[in-house]
Design brief:
Order of helices and strands: HHEEEEHEHEHEEEEEHEHEEH
Strand content: 15-25%
Strand order of the largest sheet: 1-2-3-4-5-6
Number of strands: 14
Radius of gyration: 31 Å
Helix content: 25-40%
Structural class: alpha/beta
Length: 354
Amino acid sequence: MVFPSTPNTREWLATRNMLMALLLLTGLLMPPPSLSQIVPGSMEIQWNEGSPNCSTNPQPPLQVHSYNGQTFILRENLCSTFEAPFLYLLVGSTKALLIDTGDVSDPKAMPLADTVMHLLPGDAPVKLPLLVVHTHRHQDHRAGDAQFAQLPNVQVVGFDLDSVRRFYKFTNWPNGSSEINLGDRTIDVIPTPGHNETEVSFYDRSTGLFFSGDFLMPARLLIEDASANLASAERVAAFVKDRPIPFVLGGHIEMNSDGEMFAWESQYHPHEHVLQMTKDDLLALPTALRSFNGFYTVRGKFTMENSIHVLIASAVLVVLVIVAFVWLLVRYLRRRKLARRLRKPNPSLPAQSK
């Protein structure tokens, strides 16, 4: 059916076309929904640098930074443990999530559970339910589990591989991903083995923060399984490609602001590097890992190391040096013995006349 062209009809068509043009322009100018929904936060924080002498300069055991009202970053002090791990508390509307429990089990030396429970909304003893998980099973990421074990409304997920696979319902480990629902806040769980076979990373859709544990951090990247680590890096790069990520937050800081590593087990980190890394670092990691020689490799900002391989190589080198030294010593002693024998007079030969 064709409507007759009248002034009213022409006016309606012009209005409709203008509205459609405005809608199209708005769609082009507006950021994608995923970007507009990111809850911002602040990384303006100076982490405690420890002390060159912890016995004479005692430090508070725990430092807490509020990224925003529902996201908290906790760090165990260098004087309490040279590992100085970072822990993360994410608060949703129906549940809270604690990522890692640190390196100190004694609640008197490290009041982790008490601090976390005070950060949760609600009046004691009725607090928001808390789920405690781990980036991986190494001791410095789970030593504080016992502080939470007997608390009401707290669930501590096991750190062994079977427990990890079962809790997150991974049926084709390490492929796929899982989700943790905190109410109005969803956390993606991505398997990232390589540093350790139980390693997982977390992506918070609310803030866009990527929690990488020991998989990526401003520190030595200790690689247990190079092929698994590369596969994890490629999987993560594909996952984050189209997702907003303001910061990547890892498990430790081991370098200064110039990119130089602190001495192993150092409890003093002057001019420490910032904690946060970037989405570009995640995307660059696969290329860096492809250059890893299996022992020790520095590629750009990434320092990659397999401690076991380095230890074995060092032991083999020491053995070779010892063997070489023994061989040279035996050879030297044999030559000396032969030289003495040649210099010694032979009584069976007649004496030379004067």
